[in-house]
Amino acid sequence: MDLATILSILDATIRLSTPLLLAALAGLYSERAGIFDIGLEGKMLAAAFAAGAVAAITGSAWLGLLAGMVVSLGTTLIQGLASITLKGNQLIAGVAINMLAAGMTTFLGQTWFGQGGRTPALSGDGRFSPVTLPFAEQLAGIPILGPIYAELISGHYIIVYVAFAMVAVTAFVVYRTRFGLRMRAVGENPKAVDTAGISVVAMRYKAIIITGLLTGIAGAYFSIAQGSGFGSNMTAGKGYIALAALIFAKWKPVPVMFTCLLFGFLDALQIRLQSAQIMGIEVPVQAIQALPYVLTVILLAGFIGKAVGPKAGGVPYTKER
Amino acid sequence: MSARRPLPRWADVALLPALNLLLAFLVSGTVVLMVGENPLHAIQVIIYGAFGYGDGFGYTLYYATNFIFTGLAVAVAAHAGLFNIGGDGQAYVAGLGAIVVALALDQTHWLIAMPAAMLAAAAVGGFWAFIPGYLQAKRGSHVVITTIMFNFIAAALMVYMVNRVLKPVTTMAPESETIDVAGRVPQLRQFFSFFGYSPVNLSIVIAVLALIFVYVLIWRTKFGYAVRVLGANPTASRYAGISNSRMIMVTMTISGALAGMVAINEVMGVQNRLVLDFVAGAGFVGIAVALMGRNHPIGILLAALLFGALYQGGQELQFVIPGITREMIVVIQALVILFTGAMEGLFRPSLERAFMLYRPEHKAEAISRETADSES
Q1: Do B330 and A290 touch (CB under 8 A)?
Q2: What distance in Å separates the CA atoms of residue A220 and residue A237, rounded to the nearest whole number?
Q3: Are B86 and B129 contacting, i.e. CB atoms less than 8 angstroms apart?
Q4: Which residues of B touch A79 (CB under 8 A)?
Q5: In the prediction, which pLDDT does A228 show?
Q6: Which of A142-156, B26-40, B263-277, B335-349 has the highest mean pLDDT?
Q7: Which residues pair with A281 in a beta bridge?
Q8: DSSP-assigned letter for residue A35
Q9: Apex CA A128: angle with CA A126 and CA A132, to 5°?
């Protein structure tokens, strides 16, 4: 394998990791606050559709992004209403959101645009275009480092840089701010937080609002950055991979980034490996596709370390009267 | 848990789900209205399409057969306090067991092939649910997350199996060999011409037997009692000398085996071969069915029929009203899950208040029970 091939696989890794990273970080806020979120997939899908539809109508990627975030936030608040205010089962709420998004996006897509659930193809300003970092072209000539800077680091969509910046932001927010401390406390021991006079319900809503905004960006990435328009079920289970990544990283921001890069790499490899052979043995593509899920199951079972989530996760908090 | 004022039983099992269902339909109706179609006309089309003629009714029953199996699968697990979200994957891999046995025995007779294939499907589906059960019981991993992961692993496995192992060299399409006529589960239309060309087959009898089996199992056996104790209070069940981990594993296996029966209906009764994605989300419909049916066989039967009707009516809908697509049914299904499952508490407080107003003599009792609850 030469440098160009390696670079192109790594480049694809970054592109494919981005939505996973945003969604996994989104899930981190929710789950650290004690709300299990299996609705990441649905929120991303809803956001992808909203972003694609609005960008197609207005011709502006930024308005599309905004619409994606708003719709994702709305979806999150429905889920929050069910699982925080009404104290319903968080998992069932997540299942409902995923299904609602899958049905609504295809239904509305078909009804509004009549193209089999797709939104019209985006071009020009309707889509984010790659950002060329300063001096990328001038430095491209330098051996090894030049191509790495020009191909791998430069030339991605703005959302990609936002996603990686969010890792640092999240690490800071979760571990270095009062909000982060309280959020983690709500996920571990809501009673103690309540006793300290902080509203558990308000804290959890604040956390899932961040979740909603981040899944909004992640969803928009699918339709108005990576793709040119929304296609039916275009997130294709990435929300579940993000969930797997979050568990795999044990709900910590920086490990989340590395896990997402790993899962993104597997995805890139899988696309590359279609009917290719490694050392004379043909590796079924399906085996690589299933690897993130298998790894998560093995990790959860404690065979490679132990993944222990926030203690109060999944349990609605009821104030004592 | 919060203090719960008691509702009369009929209100709890019938009125509340009915109200939630009504709300789901109202919201769906609003969506239909939003896209500029008439919801009343849509309902009319759905009802006619699902019940109005033999073919349509046959399709309704065919869909309902799948939903009974997956609904029961979710319900059995739910009685033990487990949320089996992996019915889709379990039904899917069960297809492997069904097809291997069916192809091996398809020269004999369906009376031999069907029971054998059922056992194989149950074994494979049960195994696919046993692993998450084992991992929860022995290693403490959350069964919900594991079953989600297993859905995806099942999908990858099946693509591999169908494309690389089961596909005959002569065909291009990703599907297994076709089962010989002798090995197929008979269609009901062979006995009643009323059903026209619809694919409803003898599997529906198995579905009804499964409903009875689950009723007896859960409410009439020692095992079922242990399941319900585990679901209601795992600590109590442990102190009662029940092995919780064993119960979790056995219950999940039964749950997966029930989901696996979908493969009989689809592989042996309808498709006559193994195709990709034959489960088509029935495992997820099962969640809605079990929630609506309050995990009771009678409720599940009714809810499965309702969803069968919605599916068949939905097919009809897209032909009659071009503005509405099949996905409307997925939306309705999602809303049912949302309102009867996650937002179950939406009407409960007001309903409880309403009942207290109408029955003042129960008011004192209700209040005393509430205070007792919150003190404990």
Answers
A1: no
A2: 15
A3: yes
A4: 342
A5: 86
A6: B263-277
A7: A278
A8: -
A9: 145
The count of other CB atoms within 10 Å of the CB of residue A291 is 18
Q: How many CB pairs under 8 A join A and B?
A: 154
The ipTM value here is 0.89
Which amino acid appears at position B275 of this protein? Answer: V
**What single-letter amino acid sits at B335?**
L
CA distance A84 to A79: 8
Q: Can you read off the two tokens belonging to residue B94? A: 């069960």
pLDDT of residue A137: 73
Give, for A278, the enclosing helix (H) or strand (E). Answer: strand A277-278
Q: Inspect the interface and report whether the beta carbons of B338 and A102 lie closer than 8 Å.
A: no
Q: Is the minimum CB–CB distance between A290 and chain B shorter than 8 Å?
A: yes
The shortest C-alpha distance from B345 to chain A (Å) reads 6
Q: Where is A55: in which H helix or E strand?
A: helix A40-58
Give me the phi and psi of A263, to 5 degrees please.
Answer: -65, -35
Rg (CA), chain A: 20
More confidently predicted of B367 and A197: A197
pLDDT at A159 over 90: yes
How would you class B114 by CB atoms within 10 Å of its CB: exposed for 0-12, middle for 13-18, buried for 19 or more?
A: buried
Question: Are A300 and B142 within 8 A, CB to CB?
Answer: yes
The answer to whether residues A100 and B334 touch, using CB atoms and an 8 Å cutoff, is yes
Q: Which amino acid is at A239?
A: G
A35-84 confidence digits (pLDDT tens): 989 999 999 999 999 999 999 999 899 999 999 999 999 999 999 999 99
Check residue B2 and give its pLDDT: 42
pTM: 0.89
Confirm if B174 and B111 have CB atoms less than 8 A apart.
no
Q: Let me know: does A231 contact A118? Beta carbons within 8 Å.
A: yes
Report the alpha-carbon distance of residue A44 to residue B211 in Å, rounded.
38
H-assigned helices in chain B: 9-10, 16-34, 39-51, 54-79, 87-105, 110-139, 143-160, 203-220, 222-232, 234-239, 244-260, 262-263, 282-292, 297-320, 327-336, 348-358, 360-375
